[in-house]
């Protein structure tokens, strides 16, 4: 097993989130200008920035570097489910480690990123088979802007043997 770093992704995570917010604001302005232009003056419609590409993929690369020495094969999936959860899969030495994170966007709060804490007890608030239970909403979340070292993230990864 690769040595887990004590380094926290906090400074980079804030930078990635700000980069996404800036990219989204620039897209919004460009899209409004495109929408208000005359048909014969329009170029191709601007593309929206993807949260997965601007925030989650760099976070997955950071965790790969600091939890697996950069030797894991990394895949990012999502968004999925009600919370828009995105899953980072790390394949390392025949095992699959995965971690789900969810963006939290509120009208009165800045953009945040939360991790679903499968290592804590389920609240049972949503009954078996309900939409909430299916979307893992019985498990609490933690704001990942906290200064958690890579070792903290590594301990929260769910480990499976894909073989």
Strand-pairing-aware structural class: alpha+beta
Multimerization status: single chain
- Can you give the mean pLDDT? 78
Number of strands: 6
Query: What is the distance, rounded to the nearest whole angstrom, between the alpha carbons of the first and last residues?
Result: 19 Å
So what's the overall shape?
globular
Q: How many helices in DSSP terms? A: 4
Structural description of this entry:
This protein has 163 residues and is α+β, with helices and mostly antiparallel strands. The chain has one domain. It is 34% helix and 23% strand. It contains four helices and six strands. The chain has helices at residues 10-36, 51-68, 131-134, 150-155; strands at 73-80, 85-92, 95-104, 112-116, 141-143, 158-160. Strands 1, 2, 3, 4, 5 and 6 form a six-stranded antiparallel beta sheet that branches. A hairpin with a 7-residue loop joins strand 3 and strand 4 (112-116). Helix 1 (10-36) runs antiparallel to helix 2. The longest helix is centred in the N-terminal third of the chain and has 27 residues, at 10-36. It is globular and about 55 Å long. The two termini are 19 Å apart. 21% of the residues are buried. The mean pLDDT is 78.
Chart the SSEs and their pairings.
Layout (H helix, E strand, L loop, with lengths): L9 H27 L14 H18 L4 E8 L4 E8 L2 E10 L7 E5 L14 H4 L6 E3 L6 H6 L2 E3 L3
Antiparallel strand pairs: 1-2, 2-3, 3-4, 3-6, 4-5
Helix pairs in contact: 1-2
């Amino acid at each position: 097993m690769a040595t887990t770093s004590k380094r926290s992704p906090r400074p980079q995570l804030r930078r990635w989130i700000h980069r996404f917010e800036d990219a989204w604001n620039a897209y919004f302005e460009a899209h409004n200008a495109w929408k208000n232009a005359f048909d014969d003056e329009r170029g191709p419609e601007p593309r929206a920035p993807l949260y997965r590409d601007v925030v989650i993929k760099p976070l997955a690369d950071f965790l790969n570097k600091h939890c697996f020495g950069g030797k894991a094969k990394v895949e990012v999936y999502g968004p999925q489910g009600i919370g828009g959860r995105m899953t980072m899969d790390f394949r390392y030495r025949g095992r699959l480690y995965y971690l789900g994170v969810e963006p939290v966007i509120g009208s009165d709060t800045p953009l945040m990123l939360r991790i679903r804490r499968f290592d804590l007890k389920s609240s049972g608030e949503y009954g078996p088979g309900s939409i909430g239970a299916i979307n893992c909403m019985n498990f609490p979340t933690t704001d990942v802007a906290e200064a958690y070292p890579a070792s903290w993230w590594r301990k929260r990864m769910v480990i499976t043997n894909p073989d």
